[in-house]
Write a structure and sequence with these properties.
Elements: H1 3-6, H2 13-25, H3 31-39, E1 60-63, E2 66-68, H4 71-82, E3 89-93, H5 99-105, E4 110-115, H6 118-130, E5 136-140, E6 153-158, H7 167-171, E7 173-183, E8 189-197, E9 200-209
Parallel strand pairs: 3-4, 3-6, 4-5, 6-7
Antiparallel strand pairs: 1-2, 7-8, 8-9
The chain binds S-adenosyl-L-homocysteine (SAH).
Length: 223
Amino acid sequence: MDTRLDGIGMTSARTRERLILRLAEQGIQDAAVLERIRSVPRHIFVDEALASRAYEDTALPLGHGQTISQPYIVARMTEALRAGAAVRSVLEIGTGCGYQTAVLAGLVPQVFTIERIEPLLQRAKSNLREIGIANVRFRHGDGFEGWRAMGPYDSILVAAAPAEVPEELLAQLAPGGRLVMPIGPDGRQRLLRYTRRGTVYEPEDLGAVSFVPMLAGVVGSLG
Ligand code: SAH
């Protein structure tokens, strides 16, 4: 048994089971999403000093002023992206440590992910390699630009909040595709889902959330 991946004590199967029950109680209904969260070892994505808290339903610090998303939010956004339709591709903006990426990679055949902070992107790559995930393409870049060459996408998920929905991301959605992202300033963010119907983008409000801001430009390995 590989104890680092399987976890022991506070990172064990029983601890993960408690997290899944809690997410279900909070309203997550998509069984495939719950199963995926059960199977992704969140403790390898956080600093060793925080591993014992990896299966608490909280955001945890990642360094560089960023946080690994709360499991409930990861579940909620993934469920909102799937919502009944087949999803063949997803563009993720804000890779962070790669935890949300790993959840998506088990549910969507083709995952594309963009992070503006280079050292975080490198860490995400090595985390995903460690757990044997190979269907993800990474890009160090500014998510406001999306990744036109690989699109259009069935779905786009953004893990950082801008003031307004970026038009460029809407333009990279395939017909019927969905964009799920937080919008708005600190303290007043809403999680929105836009569905593309022809040239119209239908918005739905999925509730209040709290994300780090979406920032323009990139940060290199010395930044
Ligand atoms: N889902 C991630 C956590 C994301 S935190 C996880 O599970 O670890 C949000 C991330 O968005 C941060 O890493 C931040 O650097 C990144 N980010 C913010 N603005 C961005 C932009 N314009 N383009 C790409 N990434 C961005």
